[in-house]
Specification:
By secondary structure, this protein is an alpha/beta fold. 43% of the residues lie in helices and 19% in strands. The chain has eleven helices and ten strands. Bound molecules: S-adenosylmethionine.
């Protein structure tokens, strides 16, 4: 039964979600998203999306489950483009002063939009050399990442120039050119269980930890700190903040960028 006083409870629901989380469900195909939402509503005995929203408003656990179900694997190239612009203009030039060969980790890389975005920025900094480790706990999404296919919705923040330079258009899909894959290693890795490599100049972990407990997040940010070289930077998602960053030892040069202090900033010749 779907009786509600609201003319289109799907659109109304999307508006509530956007208001509360900033997540715009209307950018997803309605039939699939609506089916998912209505089946989640059924699961808790809600008769329509208005009732389901009332459940989510009063039950934090249900809300966390809902977010988990709808955002898992969601990504796009240059997600939050203004932050990628700061990465390009401010952070990467600083990291380049640390080394002429950058080691980067995209942790929770989903279907590859993030590591390929990083690869584009680093290709643009040639003759700098770089290696990107791209990891995710989900093996099936990693296979997709290795293929490097993207839908037009993933590409909205990619400039026409970079589209042309780094992608091959096939029908309405875009595939990354081989030169973008050359320096990326995709590997299965669980951030909550597996050992971490060290020696990273940049760690990008965005929109992954939102469902982790506070304790798990705290441990993770300490472990990232240990994996960075002095002067190295951790780049987090635009809804994520490390409140105790000073306690861990980070500096915050810009919001959502946390730096392990450099003992000595050496300029490479
Ligand atoms: C919402 S996507 C974020 C993708 C990308 N970082 C971005 O910001 O666009 C979250 C990804 O984190 C991965 N993930 C969830 N738990 C993880 C864990 N414990 N270890 C590694 N990856 C995890 C999921 O499989 C999913 O692909």
């Amino acid at each position: 039964m779907r009786t509600t006083s609201i003319a289109d409870d799907y659109l109304w629901f999307c508006e509530q979600v956007k208001r509360k989380t900033g997540l715009d469900l209307q950018q997803y195909k309605r039939p699939q998203m609506e089916r998912r939402l209505r089946s989640m509503a059924d699961r808790v005995g809600a008769h329509n999306l208005e009732e389901y929203w009332a459940v989510l408003e009063r039950d934090a656990q249900q809300f966390a489950y809902f977010i988990d179900r709808i955002t898992i694997n969601v990504s796009e190239l240059f997600r939050n483009p203004e932050k990628f612009e700061e990465l390009r203009q401010v952070i990467l030039p600083q990291l380049r002063r640390l080394s002429s060969s950058l080691k980067v980790w995209s942790a929770g890389c989903s279907y590859g939009a993030e590591p390929y975005s990083l690869a584009i920025l680093l290709e643009e900094m040639r003759p700098l050399s770089y290696q990107i480790l791209a990891t995710d706990v989900d093996e099936s999404i990693l296979s997709k990442a290795k293929e490097g296919f993207f839908a037009p919705e993933d590409m909205r923040n990619v400039s026409p120039e970079w589209k042309q330079k780094y992608f091959i258009q096939q029908g309405n899909r875009y595939q990354v050119k081989p030169e973008l894959k050359r320096n990326i290693i995709f590997r299965k890795h669980n951030l909550l269980a597996d050992p971490f490599e060290t020696g990273f100049h940049l760690i990008v972990c965005r929109n992954v930890v939102i469902y982790f407990t506070e304790e798990a997040k705290d441990r993770l940010y300490v472990r990232f700190f240990q994996s960075l070289v002095p002067g190295g930077v951790l780049f987090v998602g635009s809804t994520e903040r490390i409140f105790n960053y000073r306690e861990i030892g980070y500096e915050m040069p810009l919001s959502f960028f946390y730096r392990k202090p450099a003992m000595e900033l050496r300029r490479v010749a």
